[in-house]
Amino acid sequence: MRKFKTESKKLLDLMINSIYTNREIFLRELISNASDAVDKLYFRSLTDPDVAVGRDDLAITVAFDAEARTVTVSDNGIGMTKDEMDKNLGTIAHSDSYEFKAARAEEAAEAATEGEAEGEPKGLADLTDVDIIGQFGVGFYSAFMVGKKVRVISRAVGSDEAWAWESDGVEGYDMVIAERSEHGTDVIVYLKDDTDEESFGTFATEHGLTSLIKRYSNYVRYPIKMEVTRTRKVEAPEAAEGDDAEAPAAPQWETYTEIETINSMIPIWKRRKSEVSQEEYNEFYKTDFHDFEDPARTISVHAEGSLNYDALLFVPSRAPWDMYSKDYQRGLALYSANVLIMDKCEELLPDYFGFVRGVVDSSDLTLNISRETLQHNGQLRAIARRLEKKIKADLANMRDDDREAYERFFEQFGRTLKFGIYQSYGMAKDVLADLLLFYSAKQQKMITLDEYLADAPAGADAIFYAAGDSRERLSQMPLVTTVLAKGYDVLLCDQDVDEFCMMAMGTYGEHAVDGDDENKQPYFIKNVGADDLGLTTEEEKKEAEEATESNAELFEAMREALGDKVERVVVSTRLTDAPAVVTSEGGVSLAMVQVLKSQPGAEELPELHLALEVNVKHPVFATLQAAHEAGDDGKVRDYASLLFDQALIVEGIMPDNPLAFAQAIAALMK
Q: Which end of the chain is more exposed for a tag (fewer CB within 10 A), N or C?
């Protein structure tokens, strides 16, 4: 037995038990090695006239023997000599593929330089189009995660002899002369015995192997062939003379085997969009991402330059049922040289575009030694930034060119975009704000913020919104009708995330101050129920001051009657028909408080500062004045409480004591 040419026990144990975390990827690694071997032979055929190889003849074969508990991966690639086997398999972490890749890069660079010196560029397409997958020389040893013994039989192209390498992955290996009819390599994995925790025998089954090939190696560029079992109907024999001709013959079936190509080879995302029909994209999406509806949008990206990658992205037509649960996993499938690296690479998508599904394939990525995660994520971040711009641009195009489709999209995923602004504390608003839609009380349809501003009166400096649980109720709120009466629109926000989103944005766009284009300020986003809206005229302010001064004692009596429910009772400058309204001060609205109360940690709610705004022109206020002047403190107290509770109900909030409110109403009806 030959000893491994490294700190064998420690390093091999690291290869088998620490670097890889998923045992089933052993097949991916062996197929990737086989693909590299075939690639090397094809490259040799381009530069060596003595090697005649047709690309259509190159293939990888996977076989299994359930009784012997073996899995075999074979190729008709370049093969290995005895010395190469000793060097590549006997030295852990030695990568012949890495050396090959480095040598090809150097040759391509030299050829380019020579071409420039001669004034004529060299044809390098065939030199560089050899996408070697392996780099580290440890993928082969993943076979020992599932195998108690591995045997490799290889015959180098141009050689008359084959050699066998065999090891149990512990101390060393044996090498003996062997038989192989043609060049190439067979890797035979003798599976470990099954345990209570793991069933290694599932790898020696047709279903087990075909599912792994389709999952991890479906787009390897060479056909992966395997003998599979099929059934077919057998024609019933003709009835003999004298038999009952009317008796139906029972259908007969037979089982047979055939060699079938398991993988698709050419990934759809590598093809130009002009070469693929939308039906093909739809079928790929529904099959690979298990959706029963066609995607709403398809985005195909082919990037070349400092970073080369292909991406195929889909915007679903409907949100998945678990979209807003903690178990939902966002991310794109990440491939490197057509080999699946990660099912869900979260780094490729920001949370607010987490509904997008698809694949990204780049051979430029720097993978870690196991290829299950990335060694450096700078390249990934660069791809993610570009994909974010592509997704944003495509959604903007849908918004502008197919509004009906966009509104259907926004109904499904608009909450995610709004939450993206809130979650980022407003930092994502430059990306997302112009994609948002809100219901316009004035136009009675969904509009963007830009469309709101395009319809705003001259001199407008704010965007107004009202938050609650129902558009119908919001449209009837006194504060909303007042703003509408002044010629301004109000966005009716009926989702629980809306007000958080609006507060996180704070401002949107810009407008010229006093017609000076060089002096611009942003439009402030204001809740109609919080703080001063800036719509009160000087005359209205003066009238309010006079009414406040002449009714100071009444307002104080009402404030005392309401106790700690309000901090102030004031004259309203923005009510027309309603007798009173409850407003908040400090930016936290009543609607937001109701949302916060339903969340965990409700005991830590911010302090709410409320004011009761009274419409002094309403007949109810005259009744209050009369009761106060008559010294009827009880009526003042009861009416103040009624005004406050009915104002809460208008806001969609239940009074603290519904029974007392009902009794007070009944008392008025006596």
A: C
Residues 209, 227 contacting (CB under 8 angstroms) = no
**Is there a contact between 28 and 340 (Cβ–Cβ < 8 Å)?**
yes
Establish whether 338 is an annotated binding residue.
no
Q: Which residue has the higher pLDDT, 407 or 373?
A: 407
Domain-embedded: residue 457: yes
Claim to verify: residue 511 and residue 615 sit in the same structural domain? no
226 annotated among ligand-binding-site residues: no
Give the position of tokens 């911010």.
606
353 is in an annotated binding site: no
How many Å apart are CA 472 and CA 302, to the nearest integer? 47
**E-assigned strand segments in 304-458:** 309-315, 332-336, 339-345, 357-361, 438-440, 446-447
Q: Are residues 499 and 544 in the same domain?
A: no
The percent of residues above 70 in pLDDT, for the chain, comes to 83
Is residue 135 annotated as involved in ligand binding? Answer: yes
Among 226, 250, 283, give the residue marking a domain's end: 226
- Cβ(149)–Cβ(187) under 8 Å? no
> Is the pLDDT assigned to residue 159 strictly greater than 90?
yes
**Count of CA atoms in the C-beta half-sphere (13 A) of 614:** 29
- DSSP 8-state secondary structure symbol assigned to residue 604: G
Please tell me whether residue 573 adopts helix, strand or coil conformation.
coil
Give the span between the Cα atoms of 98 and 104, in whole angstroms.
Answer: 10
User: Could you tell me where the DSSP H helices lie in 256-365?
Assistant: 278-288
Does 280 reside within a domain?
A: yes
C-alpha span between 422 and 416 (Å, rounded): 10
CATH number at residue 363: 3.30.230.80
CB 535 within 8 A of CB 575: no
Q: Are 348 and 334 in contact (CB under 8 A)?
A: yes
Domain boundary among 166, 193, 226: 226
> 33 labelled as ligand-binding?
yes
Range of the domain at 451: 437-522
Residue 429 domain flag: no
Going by DSSP bridges, is the β-strand pair 462-467/332-336 parallel, antiparallel, or unpaired? unpaired
Indicate whether 509 and 548 sit together in one domain. Answer: no
Please tell me which of 97-111, 146-160, 234-248 the model is most confident about, judged by mean pLDDT. 146-160
Residue 245 lies in a domain: no
| 371 among annotated binding-site residues | yes
SS (H, E, C) 336-354: ECCEEEEEEEHHHCCHHHC
Question: Tell me, what amino acid is at 327?
Answer: D
Pair (351, 451) in one structural domain: no
Structural domain total, the chain:
4
138 known ligand binder: yes
SS3 (DSSP) at 359: strand
Q: What is the CA 490 to chain-centroid distance, rounded?
A: 33
* Same domain for 221 and 104: yes
Q: How far apart are CA 618 and CA 513, in angstroms?
A: 37
**Rounded CA separation 228/639 (Å):** 85
Closest by CA position to 331, among listed 305, 350, 304, 306: 350
**Annotated binding residue 4:** no
Is the pLDDT at 500 greater than 50? The verdict is: yes
Specify whether 508 is located in the same domain as 602: no
Residue 269 has pLDDT above 60, yes or no: yes
